[in-house]
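Form 12-C: Joint structure prediction
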Amino acid sequence: MSNSHLFLKPAFITTPGQNGVGRYFCQLQRVVLKFCKNNGSSRGMREFIENKLIDFVKETPEVAVYMKPRRHRTPIIRAEYLNGDTQWVNARNFTEDEILKWLQLLKTQSSDKTGIRLRKLLHTDHPSVQGPWTPYTFRDPKLNLAEFPSPELAGPHVVETTATEELLEMYKNQQIEDVNEKRAE
Amino acid sequence: MSALKRVQQWATFARIWHIYDATWQNPFKSAEVVKKFLMGLYKPIYHPLNDCGDHVIIINSGEIALPGDEWKKRVYFHHTGYPGGASWTLAWELHTKDPTMILKKAIYNSMDGNLQRRHTMQRLHIFPDANVPKSLLDNVSNQIRQLRPVPTRLDRYTAEEVASYPKLIDYPKDYIIR
Amino acid sequence: MVFTTAVNFIRARGPDELWRKRRIFKLAAHFIGRKRNCYSIAVRYVHRALVYATKGRKLKKLDMKDLWETRIIAGVNEHDIDYRTFRESLYRSDILLNRKVLADLAAWEPYTFKALTDVAKRRAIDDGLASINNEHKVDGIITRGALTKS
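Section 2 - Result
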């Protein structure tokens, strides 16, 4: 158990985008092969440089390959991408085939995929079909013309009739009845 | 972010200005209502960390109505921090000193005490009467409905209305009206 | 347990000290100050952190439930129906959506959510649930109950 994911860059899951729809552009820009000239752990790396590196470079002229000999240290592969990512692969005791496979992988991927932590396993660029909620979505158009503060909008929505109002209503009805009776007479 | 999405974002997180008339309203129950608008709790996009709170203008805070005998019984406590610095102020005293204070404290106390509370309070504008600066009033685009209807006071009725009001009983002739 | 030799009485210290400590330091790597570098301090804070993590697993679910409820309440109040009536009516209409989906719909697909509130209101009127009266305007929603009643 470890909390190493806390040090990774949080990101959403993405697709490589439109790379290759028109023309393909290799996202790997630079590779540095660091190795020791006599240590055994660099043997595979040395053999790779001797036998396969020239072919690799001829295949992929768009990638700049650097070699950096340094004494008595583990061989590593450092890859730099167009988006600024730097990936670091420990190549200790790798055989020449393994190194070639790693380089192929670095060459074909669009960025450092090991240096990120996925915030969610699902992602979409268009989360809403109808458009997200806004304060204006269900706004009553009448409010556009209202003058604030407005006495009509001030009172509570549903109001039961008060006893006073009922009394006034009864009084009015009574008066109408009285008038009708008088007319009938 | 495309232009459309940017505008969509602005629309969703637009700050709305609400106005609320506190005439004859219970400040403590009003606080629960106003709080929802201040914090943005009425929006389905609400999250405590997203800044979706709105502005609320409260007018006529001098006309609030406290329930029961709370004008006499409710006590506001303050301590200056120095020894003997405690003071207790009755609600009616506080109201005469500053007619916006009771409502402001009611709303402040209705919210949870966290770092966001003071920033939320900054979006609240209370006025003791209906005189609101035009620059603020121009922003308003919604009115919060009151909790209860405002009754008309007896001295606000005209003499005609009083005269034409239906009479249920006549006082007996020997009845003494004090 | 029967000990045949005295060796077994000695307290077992587990794996090598370095690896034992390393296990703790890995969990303390993101702490600040001495609690990430000094073992005796780190181990206390790691234990505390693990306790919080255990409690947090349950609290996270409760917090999300509360947040979704807040959002749904915000959504339904906009359409003049209260939360309990809304959920009960949806349940009675065999629309079995959970809080997460309802909250998502309220924020991301507001017109779908409005349709849900209309269905709920219609159902609440048909079943005579509290706090809904016939004065609520529910247009375009016809249920079996509404047809048989009227």
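Section 3 - Comments
Helices of chain C lie at 17-27, 34-37, 39-78, 83-92, 99-108, 110-127, 144-149. Residues 17-58 of chain C form one domain.
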